[in-house]
Amino acid sequence: MEYFEIIGGKRLSGEVYINGAKNAAVAMLPAALAANDVSVLENLPYIEDVHSLVDSLTKVGAKCEFTDRHTLVIDSRGVRDPLAHYESIKKTRASYYLVGVLLGRFGKAEVAIPGGCNFGSRPIDQHVKGFEALGANIKIEHGMIIAHAQKLVGTNIYLDVVSVGATINIMLAAIYAEGTTVIENAAKEPHVVDTANFLNAMGAQIKGAGTDMIRIVGVKRLHGAEYMIIPDQIEAGTYLIAAAITGGEVTVRNIIPKHMDSISAKLQEMNCKIDVGDDFVKLCVPGKLQSANIKTMTYPGFPTDLQPQMTVLLCVAEGTGIITETIWENRFQYVNELKRLGCHVTVEGRAAVVEGGIQLTGAETYATDLRAGAALVVAGLAAKGRTLVGNVKYIDRGYEELVQKLANLGAQIRRVEIEE
Ligand code: EPZ
Questions:
Q1: Among 78, 213, 362, 406, which one has the highest count of C-beta atoms within 10 angstroms of its own C-beta?
Q2: What spacing in Å lies between the alpha carbon of 386 and ligand 1's midpoint?
Protein backbone atom coordinates (compact mmCIF):
# COMPACT_ATOMS: atom_id res chain seq x y z
CA MET A 1 0.00 0.00 0.00
CA GLU A 2 1.24 3.51 -0.81
CA TYR A 3 1.88 5.96 2.02
CA PHE A 4 3.34 9.43 2.41
CA GLU A 5 6.20 9.12 4.90
CA ILE A 6 7.03 12.37 6.69
CA ILE A 7 9.86 13.06 9.16
CA GLY A 8 8.55 16.13 10.96
CA GLY A 9 10.23 19.19 12.45
CA LYS A 10 11.63 20.72 9.27
CA ARG A 11 10.93 24.44 8.81
CA LEU A 12 9.44 25.12 5.35
CA SER A 13 10.87 27.97 3.29
CA GLY A 14 10.81 29.13 -0.31
CA GLU A 15 8.21 29.50 -3.05
CA VAL A 16 5.48 27.15 -4.24
CA TYR A 17 3.62 27.50 -7.56
CA ILE A 18 -0.12 26.95 -7.17
CA ASN A 19 -1.97 24.97 -9.87
CA GLY A 20 -5.42 25.48 -11.33
CA ALA A 21 -8.44 25.13 -9.06
CA LYS A 22 -9.77 21.56 -8.76
CA ASN A 23 -13.34 22.70 -8.13
CA ALA A 24 -13.26 24.99 -11.15
CA ALA A 25 -11.70 22.31 -13.36
CA VAL A 26 -14.27 19.64 -12.48
CA ALA A 27 -17.10 22.01 -13.41
CA MET A 28 -15.55 23.37 -16.58
CA LEU A 29 -14.64 20.04 -18.13
CA PRO A 30 -18.35 19.03 -18.35
CA ALA A 31 -19.25 22.65 -19.25
CA ALA A 32 -17.11 22.30 -22.40
CA LEU A 33 -19.73 19.80 -23.68
CA ALA A 34 -22.30 22.62 -23.84
CA ALA A 35 -21.04 23.69 -27.26
CA ASN A 36 -20.98 21.44 -30.32
CA ASP A 37 -17.45 22.62 -30.99
CA VAL A 38 -13.84 22.50 -29.84
CA SER A 39 -12.71 24.21 -26.61
CA VAL A 40 -9.33 24.51 -24.88
CA LEU A 41 -8.93 24.61 -21.09
CA GLU A 42 -5.58 25.87 -19.76
CA ASN A 43 -4.06 25.71 -16.25
CA LEU A 44 -5.91 22.46 -15.49
CA PRO A 45 -4.40 20.79 -12.39
CA TYR A 46 -2.80 17.41 -13.15
CA ILE A 47 -4.86 15.46 -10.58
CA GLU A 48 -6.95 12.28 -10.41
CA ASP A 49 -10.31 14.08 -10.38
CA VAL A 50 -9.46 15.78 -13.69
CA HIS A 51 -8.34 12.49 -15.25
CA SER A 52 -11.50 10.70 -14.08
CA LEU A 53 -13.67 13.40 -15.61
CA VAL A 54 -11.71 13.40 -18.88
CA ASP A 55 -12.37 9.65 -18.99
CA SER A 56 -16.10 10.30 -18.51
CA LEU A 57 -16.18 12.98 -21.23
CA THR A 58 -14.49 10.54 -23.60
CA LYS A 59 -17.05 7.87 -22.80
CA VAL A 60 -19.94 10.14 -23.77
CA GLY A 61 -18.28 10.78 -27.12
CA ALA A 62 -16.00 13.80 -26.66
CA LYS A 63 -12.43 13.68 -28.00
CA CYS A 64 -9.96 14.93 -25.38
CA GLU A 65 -6.28 15.54 -25.92
CA PHE A 66 -3.69 17.01 -23.54
CA THR A 67 -1.39 19.27 -25.56
CA ASP A 68 0.72 19.70 -22.43
CA ARG A 69 0.44 18.65 -18.79
CA HIS A 70 -2.06 21.42 -17.97
CA THR A 71 -3.78 22.14 -21.32
CA LEU A 72 -6.64 20.06 -22.70
CA VAL A 73 -8.36 20.29 -26.09
CA ILE A 74 -11.98 19.07 -25.87
CA ASP A 75 -13.84 18.32 -29.11
CA SER A 76 -17.46 17.76 -28.16
CA ARG A 77 -18.79 17.40 -31.74
CA GLY A 78 -18.90 13.64 -31.30
CA VAL A 79 -21.13 13.71 -28.21
CA ARG A 80 -24.36 12.05 -29.20
CA ASP A 81 -25.47 9.48 -26.68
CA PRO A 82 -25.77 11.29 -23.33
CA LEU A 83 -25.63 8.07 -21.41
CA ALA A 84 -22.90 8.24 -18.82
CA HIS A 85 -22.88 5.40 -16.38
CA TYR A 86 -19.34 4.31 -16.35
CA GLU A 87 -16.95 3.43 -13.53
CA SER A 88 -15.17 6.80 -13.80
CA ILE A 89 -18.45 8.58 -13.16
CA LYS A 90 -18.76 7.07 -9.72
CA LYS A 91 -15.24 8.08 -8.73
CA THR A 92 -15.84 11.80 -8.87
CA ARG A 93 -18.74 13.62 -7.24
CA ALA A 94 -18.47 16.39 -9.83
CA SER A 95 -19.65 13.89 -12.47
CA TYR A 96 -23.12 15.15 -11.63
CA TYR A 97 -22.38 18.25 -13.72
CA LEU A 98 -22.80 15.95 -16.74
CA VAL A 99 -26.53 15.85 -15.95
CA GLY A 100 -26.91 19.63 -16.23
CA VAL A 101 -24.86 20.05 -19.38
CA LEU A 102 -26.29 17.02 -21.26
CA LEU A 103 -29.85 17.90 -20.20
CA GLY A 104 -29.28 21.47 -21.36
CA ARG A 105 -27.83 20.49 -24.74
CA PHE A 106 -29.75 17.31 -25.61
CA GLY A 107 -32.86 17.46 -23.41
CA LYS A 108 -31.84 14.17 -21.80
CA ALA A 109 -29.16 12.67 -19.58
CA GLU A 110 -28.55 9.40 -17.80
CA VAL A 111 -25.66 9.65 -15.34
CA ALA A 112 -24.59 7.32 -12.55
CA ILE A 113 -25.09 8.86 -9.13
CA PRO A 114 -21.55 9.91 -8.18
CA GLY A 115 -19.55 9.06 -5.11
CA GLY A 116 -17.76 11.72 -3.13
CA CYS A 117 -16.16 12.24 0.25
CA ASN A 118 -17.58 10.54 3.32
CA PHE A 119 -18.43 13.54 5.47
CA GLY A 120 -22.11 13.87 4.91
CA SER A 121 -25.00 12.62 2.86
CA ARG A 122 -24.05 14.81 -0.14
CA PRO A 123 -27.68 15.26 -1.29
CA ILE A 124 -28.66 16.54 -4.74
CA ASP A 125 -32.24 17.64 -3.98
CA GLN A 126 -31.50 21.26 -4.93
CA HIS A 127 -30.07 20.16 -8.28
CA VAL A 128 -33.25 18.14 -8.93
CA LYS A 129 -35.42 21.06 -7.78
CA GLY A 130 -33.76 23.31 -10.36
CA PHE A 131 -33.97 20.82 -13.22
CA GLU A 132 -37.67 20.14 -12.52
CA ALA A 133 -38.39 23.88 -12.27
CA LEU A 134 -36.96 24.21 -15.80
CA GLY A 135 -39.39 21.54 -17.01
CA ALA A 136 -37.34 18.37 -16.81
CA ASN A 137 -38.61 15.02 -15.57
CA ILE A 138 -36.09 13.49 -13.16
CA LYS A 139 -35.99 9.88 -12.01
CA ILE A 140 -33.40 8.34 -9.71
CA GLU A 141 -33.32 4.58 -10.11
CA HIS A 142 -30.79 1.78 -10.25
CA GLY A 143 -28.08 4.21 -9.11
CA MET A 144 -28.74 6.48 -12.07
CA ILE A 145 -30.00 10.04 -12.40
CA ILE A 146 -32.31 9.94 -15.46
CA ALA A 147 -33.37 13.34 -16.81
CA HIS A 148 -35.66 14.09 -19.75
CA ALA A 149 -37.25 17.32 -21.02
CA GLN A 150 -39.38 18.06 -24.08
CA LYS A 151 -38.42 21.69 -23.66
CA LEU A 152 -36.57 23.62 -20.98
CA VAL A 153 -38.17 26.94 -20.11
CA GLY A 154 -36.50 29.63 -18.03
CA THR A 155 -37.94 30.34 -14.58
CA ASN A 156 -37.06 31.67 -11.12
CA ILE A 157 -35.38 29.17 -8.80
CA TYR A 158 -34.76 29.99 -5.14
CA LEU A 159 -32.23 27.56 -3.65
CA ASP A 160 -33.21 26.37 -0.16
CA VAL A 161 -29.51 25.85 0.59
CA VAL A 162 -26.54 27.77 -0.80
CA SER A 163 -25.09 25.02 -2.96
CA VAL A 164 -22.05 25.30 -5.25
CA GLY A 165 -23.01 22.16 -7.15
CA ALA A 166 -26.67 23.05 -7.59
CA THR A 167 -25.82 26.61 -8.68
CA ILE A 168 -23.43 25.40 -11.38
CA ASN A 169 -25.61 22.47 -12.47
CA ILE A 170 -28.71 24.66 -12.90
CA MET A 171 -26.63 27.22 -14.81
CA LEU A 172 -25.53 24.42 -17.17
CA ALA A 173 -29.10 23.20 -17.71
CA ALA A 174 -30.47 26.72 -18.27
CA ILE A 175 -28.06 27.86 -20.99
CA TYR A 176 -30.34 26.86 -23.88
CA ALA A 177 -33.64 27.15 -21.97
CA GLU A 178 -36.29 29.36 -23.57
CA GLY A 179 -36.40 32.75 -21.88
CA THR A 180 -34.65 33.80 -18.68
CA THR A 181 -33.69 31.77 -15.63
CA VAL A 182 -32.91 33.46 -12.31
CA ILE A 183 -31.09 31.49 -9.60
CA GLU A 184 -31.60 33.14 -6.22
CA ASN A 185 -29.63 32.33 -3.05
CA ALA A 186 -26.89 31.19 -5.45
CA ALA A 187 -23.37 30.19 -4.35
CA LYS A 188 -20.72 32.91 -4.85
CA GLU A 189 -17.54 30.79 -4.84
CA PRO A 190 -14.74 31.78 -7.27
CA HIS A 191 -15.25 28.53 -9.19
CA VAL A 192 -18.92 29.43 -9.78
CA VAL A 193 -17.76 32.73 -11.30
CA ASP A 194 -15.05 30.99 -13.33
CA THR A 195 -17.53 28.52 -14.80
CA ALA A 196 -19.92 31.35 -15.72
CA ASN A 197 -17.05 33.27 -17.34
CA PHE A 198 -16.08 30.22 -19.41
CA LEU A 199 -19.70 29.68 -20.52
CA ASN A 200 -19.98 33.37 -21.45
CA ALA A 201 -16.76 33.03 -23.47
CA MET A 202 -18.62 30.26 -25.34
CA GLY A 203 -21.49 32.66 -26.06
CA ALA A 204 -23.79 32.06 -23.11
CA GLN A 205 -25.56 35.01 -21.51
CA ILE A 206 -24.98 34.72 -17.75
CA LYS A 207 -24.93 37.74 -15.47
CA GLY A 208 -24.53 38.10 -11.71
CA ALA A 209 -22.20 35.17 -11.03
CA GLY A 210 -20.42 35.96 -7.76
CA THR A 211 -23.58 37.45 -6.30
CA ASP A 212 -26.50 35.55 -4.77
CA MET A 213 -28.63 36.20 -7.89
CA ILE A 214 -27.54 34.78 -11.26
CA ARG A 215 -29.52 35.55 -14.42
CA ILE A 216 -29.20 33.28 -17.47
CA VAL A 217 -30.81 34.31 -20.77
CA GLY A 218 -31.25 31.25 -23.00
CA VAL A 219 -29.36 31.22 -26.33
CA LYS A 220 -29.72 29.14 -29.48
CA ARG A 221 -26.15 27.95 -29.81
CA LEU A 222 -22.69 28.20 -28.30
CA HIS A 223 -19.23 28.02 -29.82
CA GLY A 224 -15.96 26.69 -28.44
CA ALA A 225 -13.65 28.88 -26.36
CA GLU A 226 -10.10 28.95 -25.08
CA TYR A 227 -10.01 29.59 -21.33
CA MET A 228 -7.47 29.64 -18.50
CA ILE A 229 -8.96 28.47 -15.21
CA ILE A 230 -8.37 30.25 -11.89
CA PRO A 231 -5.73 29.10 -9.39
CA ASP A 232 -6.72 26.95 -6.44
CA GLN A 233 -7.20 28.96 -3.24
CA ILE A 234 -7.61 25.74 -1.24
CA GLU A 235 -4.28 24.36 -2.44
CA ALA A 236 -2.70 27.76 -1.68
CA GLY A 237 -4.27 27.85 1.79
CA THR A 238 -3.01 24.35 2.52
CA TYR A 239 0.59 25.45 1.83
CA LEU A 240 0.21 28.60 3.94
CA ILE A 241 -1.00 26.47 6.85
CA ALA A 242 1.89 24.04 6.30
CA ALA A 243 4.30 26.99 6.42
CA ALA A 244 2.68 28.35 9.57
CA ILE A 245 2.74 25.05 11.47
CA THR A 246 6.48 24.61 10.80
CA GLY A 247 7.29 28.22 11.73
CA GLY A 248 8.48 28.68 8.17
CA GLU A 249 8.53 31.41 5.55
CA VAL A 250 6.74 30.50 2.32
CA THR A 251 5.41 32.39 -0.69
CA VAL A 252 2.50 30.88 -2.62
CA ARG A 253 2.69 32.11 -6.22
CA ASN A 254 0.31 32.24 -9.20
CA ILE A 255 -2.75 32.96 -7.03
CA ILE A 256 -5.56 35.53 -6.87
CA PRO A 257 -5.00 37.04 -3.39
CA LYS A 258 -8.60 38.28 -3.20
CA HIS A 259 -9.76 34.63 -3.14
CA MET A 260 -7.57 34.09 -0.07
CA ASP A 261 -8.86 37.04 2.02
CA SER A 262 -10.66 35.00 4.70
CA ILE A 263 -7.71 32.59 4.98
CA SER A 264 -5.07 35.34 5.18
CA ALA A 265 -7.15 37.27 7.73
CA LYS A 266 -7.49 34.22 10.00
CA LEU A 267 -3.78 33.41 9.78
CA GLN A 268 -2.95 37.04 10.64
CA GLU A 269 -5.29 36.75 13.63
CA MET A 270 -3.15 33.76 14.69
CA ASN A 271 -0.01 35.94 14.67
CA CYS A 272 1.25 35.09 11.19
CA LYS A 273 2.81 37.89 9.15
CA ILE A 274 1.16 38.07 5.72
CA ASP A 275 2.47 40.07 2.74
CA VAL A 276 0.19 40.28 -0.31
CA GLY A 277 1.34 41.00 -3.89
CA ASP A 278 -0.42 40.95 -7.28
CA ASP A 279 -0.18 37.20 -7.68
CA PHE A 280 1.32 35.96 -4.42
CA VAL A 281 0.88 35.77 -0.67
CA LYS A 282 3.91 35.41 1.60
CA LEU A 283 3.65 34.06 5.15
CA CYS A 284 6.06 33.91 8.04
CA VAL A 285 5.66 33.42 11.80
CA PRO A 286 7.68 36.04 13.69
CA GLY A 287 6.56 34.92 17.14
CA LYS A 288 4.30 32.27 18.61
CA LEU A 289 1.13 31.09 16.89
CA GLN A 290 -1.95 32.17 18.82
CA SER A 291 -5.18 30.16 18.76
CA ALA A 292 -8.41 31.55 17.27
CA ASN A 293 -12.04 30.63 16.72
CA ILE A 294 -13.05 29.69 13.17
CA LYS A 295 -16.45 29.25 11.57
CA THR A 296 -16.68 27.78 8.07
CA MET A 297 -19.05 29.71 5.81
CA THR A 298 -19.94 29.99 2.14
CA TYR A 299 -17.71 32.34 0.12
CA PRO A 300 -16.37 34.89 1.02
CA GLY A 301 -16.37 33.31 4.48
CA PHE A 302 -13.74 30.85 5.70
CA PRO A 303 -13.83 27.82 3.34
CA THR A 304 -14.92 24.43 4.71
CA ASP A 305 -12.23 22.79 2.54
CA LEU A 306 -9.55 24.24 4.83
CA GLN A 307 -11.34 23.27 8.05
CA PRO A 308 -9.35 20.05 8.68
CA GLN A 309 -6.02 21.75 7.97
CA MET A 310 -6.87 24.66 10.29
CA THR A 311 -7.89 22.29 13.09
CA VAL A 312 -4.37 20.85 12.96
CA LEU A 313 -2.85 24.34 13.14
CA LEU A 314 -4.99 25.11 16.21
CA CYS A 315 -3.52 22.00 17.91
CA VAL A 316 -0.09 23.61 17.78
CA ALA A 317 -1.04 27.27 18.43
CA GLU A 318 -1.05 28.67 22.00
CA GLY A 319 -4.47 28.58 23.69
CA THR A 320 -7.78 26.87 23.04
CA GLY A 321 -9.67 27.37 19.78
CA ILE A 322 -13.14 26.43 18.60
CA ILE A 323 -13.75 25.49 14.97
CA THR A 324 -17.38 25.34 13.82
CA GLU A 325 -18.37 23.51 10.61
CA THR A 326 -21.56 25.08 9.26
CA ILE A 327 -21.50 23.56 5.73
CA TRP A 328 -21.18 19.78 6.22
CA GLU A 329 -23.02 17.70 8.83
CA ASN A 330 -20.14 15.39 9.64
CA ARG A 331 -16.75 16.76 8.63
CA PHE A 332 -14.76 15.90 11.78
CA GLN A 333 -14.21 12.18 11.15
CA TYR A 334 -10.48 12.82 10.65
CA VAL A 335 -10.18 13.92 14.31
CA ASN A 336 -9.84 10.27 15.37
CA GLU A 337 -6.73 10.06 13.20
CA LEU A 338 -5.39 13.32 14.66
CA LYS A 339 -5.67 11.86 18.16
CA ARG A 340 -3.11 9.23 17.15
CA LEU A 341 -0.67 12.13 16.72
CA GLY A 342 -1.42 13.44 20.22
CA CYS A 343 -4.05 16.07 19.39
CA HIS A 344 -6.58 17.02 22.10
CA VAL A 345 -9.75 17.75 20.11
CA THR A 346 -13.28 17.32 21.46
CA VAL A 347 -16.03 17.21 18.84
CA GLU A 348 -19.48 18.34 19.94
CA GLY A 349 -21.93 18.26 17.02
CA ARG A 350 -20.74 20.75 14.43
CA ALA A 351 -18.05 22.26 16.66
CA ALA A 352 -14.62 21.04 17.71
CA VAL A 353 -12.85 22.38 20.79
CA VAL A 354 -9.11 22.29 20.14
CA GLU A 355 -6.60 22.42 23.00
CA GLY A 356 -3.45 24.12 21.69
CA GLY A 357 0.22 24.08 22.57
CA ILE A 358 0.56 20.36 21.76
CA GLN A 359 3.83 18.80 20.60
CA LEU A 360 2.54 16.29 18.03
CA THR A 361 4.28 12.93 17.74
CA GLY A 362 4.48 10.88 14.55
CA ALA A 363 2.21 7.85 14.00
CA GLU A 364 0.66 5.70 11.28
CA THR A 365 -2.53 7.38 10.04
CA TYR A 366 -5.04 7.00 7.21
CA ALA A 367 -6.76 9.71 5.16
CA THR A 368 -10.56 9.52 5.37
CA ASP A 369 -11.06 12.01 2.52
CA LEU A 370 -9.14 14.51 0.40
CA ARG A 371 -8.83 17.43 2.80
CA ALA A 372 -8.50 15.19 5.86
CA GLY A 373 -5.53 13.63 4.09
CA ALA A 374 -4.01 17.07 3.54
CA ALA A 375 -4.54 17.81 7.24
CA LEU A 376 -2.69 14.64 8.26
CA VAL A 377 0.23 15.64 6.02
CA VAL A 378 0.27 19.10 7.65
CA ALA A 379 0.25 17.42 11.09
CA GLY A 380 3.12 15.12 10.05
CA LEU A 381 5.23 18.14 9.09
CA ALA A 382 5.02 19.38 12.70
CA ALA A 383 5.06 16.01 14.50
CA LYS A 384 8.20 14.74 16.17
CA GLY A 385 9.51 11.65 14.37
CA ARG A 386 7.94 9.66 11.55
CA THR A 387 4.35 9.95 10.35
CA LEU A 388 2.78 7.69 7.74
CA VAL A 389 -0.34 8.81 5.89
CA GLY A 390 -2.19 6.00 4.10
CA ASN A 391 -5.01 6.17 1.52
CA VAL A 392 -2.93 8.64 -0.50
CA LYS A 393 -5.34 8.06 -3.39
CA TYR A 394 -7.67 10.56 -1.70
CA ILE A 395 -4.90 13.18 -1.64
CA ASP A 396 -3.89 12.51 -5.25
CA ARG A 397 -7.45 13.45 -6.24
CA GLY A 398 -6.91 17.09 -5.38
CA TYR A 399 -3.21 18.02 -5.00
CA GLU A 400 -0.74 18.02 -7.89
CA GLU A 401 2.77 16.90 -6.87
CA LEU A 402 2.19 17.46 -3.14
CA VAL A 403 5.27 15.44 -2.15
CA GLN A 404 7.56 17.22 -4.63
CA LYS A 405 6.29 20.67 -3.72
CA LEU A 406 6.69 20.10 0.02
CA ALA A 407 10.15 18.53 -0.46
CA ASN A 408 11.16 21.60 -2.50
CA LEU A 409 10.15 23.71 0.50
CA GLY A 410 12.43 21.65 2.77
CA ALA A 411 10.06 18.99 4.12
CA GLN A 412 11.40 15.48 4.61
CA ILE A 413 8.59 13.65 2.80
CA ARG A 414 8.42 10.81 0.29
CA ARG A 415 5.93 8.38 -1.22
CA VAL A 416 6.66 4.84 -0.04
CA GLU A 417 5.23 1.42 -0.79
CA ILE A 418 4.75 -0.72 2.33
CA GLU A 419 3.65 -4.35 2.16
CA GLU A 420 0.64 -4.99 4.40
C1 EPZ B 1 -18.45 21.70 -3.49
O2 EPZ B 1 -19.19 20.53 -3.15
C3 EPZ B 1 -16.99 21.30 -3.43
N4 EPZ B 1 -16.76 20.22 -4.39
C5 EPZ B 1 -16.63 20.84 -2.02
O6 EPZ B 1 -15.21 20.63 -2.00
C7 EPZ B 1 -16.95 21.96 -1.02
O8 EPZ B 1 -16.73 21.47 0.30
C9 EPZ B 1 -18.40 22.39 -1.18
O10 EPZ B 1 -18.67 22.76 -2.55
C11 EPZ B 1 -18.72 23.60 -0.30
O12 EPZ B 1 -17.90 24.69 -0.67
C13 EPZ B 1 -16.70 20.53 -5.70
O14 EPZ B 1 -16.82 21.68 -6.09
C15 EPZ B 1 -16.43 19.38 -6.62
P16 EPZ B 1 -22.57 22.15 -1.91
P17 EPZ B 1 -20.78 20.50 -3.40
O18 EPZ B 1 -23.61 21.68 -2.86
O19 EPZ B 1 -21.13 21.31 -4.58
C20 EPZ B 1 -26.08 20.86 1.02
C21 EPZ B 1 -13.22 19.45 -1.83
O22 EPZ B 1 -12.58 18.97 -0.87
N23 EPZ B 1 -26.79 20.49 -0.21
O24 EPZ B 1 -22.14 23.57 -1.93
O25 EPZ B 1 -21.22 19.09 -3.35
C26 EPZ B 1 -24.90 19.95 1.32
O27 EPZ B 1 -25.33 18.81 2.04
C28 EPZ B 1 -14.72 19.30 -1.86
O29 EPZ B 1 -12.70 20.09 -2.78
C30 EPZ B 1 -28.13 20.10 -0.12
O31 EPZ B 1 -28.71 20.05 0.97
O32 EPZ B 1 -21.28 21.24 -2.06
C33 EPZ B 1 -24.01 20.85 2.13
O34 EPZ B 1 -24.46 20.84 3.48
C35 EPZ B 1 -15.25 18.61 -0.63
N36 EPZ B 1 -28.80 19.77 -1.26
C37 EPZ B 1 -24.24 22.24 1.55
O38 EPZ B 1 -25.47 22.16 0.83
C39 EPZ B 1 -28.19 19.81 -2.49
O40 EPZ B 1 -28.86 19.50 -3.50
C41 EPZ B 1 -23.18 22.71 0.59
O42 EPZ B 1 -23.05 21.74 -0.44
C43 EPZ B 1 -26.84 20.19 -2.56
C44 EPZ B 1 -26.16 20.54 -1.41
A1: 406
A2: 34
Residue 15: how many CB atoms within 10 A of its CB? Answer: 15
C-alpha dihedral, 230 to 231 to 233 to 239, nearest 10°:
180
The pLDDT of residue 371: 97
The secondary structure of the chain in percent helix, strand, coil, rounded to multiples of 5, reads: 35, 30, 35
- Give the strand pairing for 249-253 and 280-284: antiparallel
Alpha carbon of 7 to ligand 1 centroid (Å): 34
Q: Give the confidence band of 121 by pLDDT, cuts at 50, 70, 90.
A: confident
Give the pLDDT confidence of 163-196 residue by residue, as tens digits: 999 999 999 999 999 999 999 999 999 999 999 9
Distance CA 158, CA 399 (A): 34
Reduced to 3 states, what is the DSSP secondary structure of residue 264?
Answer: helix
Residue 318 has pLDDT above 70, yes or no: yes
Q: Whose CA is nearest to atom 30 of ligand 1?
A: 123
Q: At what angle do helices 261-269 and 233-245 cross, to 10 degrees?
A: 10
- What is the distance between the alpha carbons of residues 73 and 63, in angstroms, rounded to a whole number? 8
Distance CA 87, CA 109 (A): 16
Euclidean distance between CA atoms 259 and 117, whole angstroms: 24
- Domains belonging to the chain, first-starting first, are 2-19+231-417 (3.65.10.10), 22-228 (3.65.10.10)
- How far apart (Å, rounded) are the C-alpha atoms in residues 121 and 348? 19
CA distance 88 to 84: 9
- Ligand 1 neighbours by CB, cut-off 6 Å: 22-23, 26, 93-94, 117, 120, 122-127, 161, 163-166, 187, 304-305, 327-328, 370-371, 398
Mean pLDDT of the chain: 95
How many angstroms separate the first and last alpha carbons of the chain?
Answer: 7
Q: 372 or 93: whose pLDDT is higher? A: 372
Q: Is 134 in contact with 174 (CB distance < 8 Å)? A: yes
Residue closest to 24 by CA, chosen among 214, 266, 199, 252: 199
Q: Which of 64, 117, 315, 343 is catalytic?
A: 117
Q: How far is the CA of 108 from the centre of ligand 1 (A)?
A: 24
Pairing label, strands 412-417, 2-7: antiparallel
117 is catalytic: yes
Task: Give backbone dihedrals phi and psi of 261, rounded to 5 degrees, phi first.
Answer: -50, -50
Q: Residue with the nearest Cα to atom 10 of ligand 1? A: 164
3-state DSSP assignment of residue 97: helix
Q: Enumerate the β-bridge partners of residue 295.
A: 324
